[in-house]
Amino acid sequence: MTTRERAHAKASNQRFNQFTEMWIVGTPEDLAVMIHAARATGRLVFVSAPHAMGGDDTRHRRYLRLRTR
After folding, report:
1. Measured at the alpha carbon of residue 61, what is the angle toward residues 59 and 66, in degrees to the nearest 5?
2. pLDDT (0 to 100) of residue 55
């Protein structure tokens, strides 16, 4: 493989593997709906375990990594 071919392959992989990372906060039911939708579209790459917000707040937060393409 030539240097030009390697550079092109690397650039193609970087364009293809673009992700959005975010924390989502909400009730467990709302988070389940959002995660189900992301999974159904094939965009979901990673989802963390739910973390309670703390105190008397009943909401949870989860970290998501989604494909942009």
Report:
1. 140
2. 86
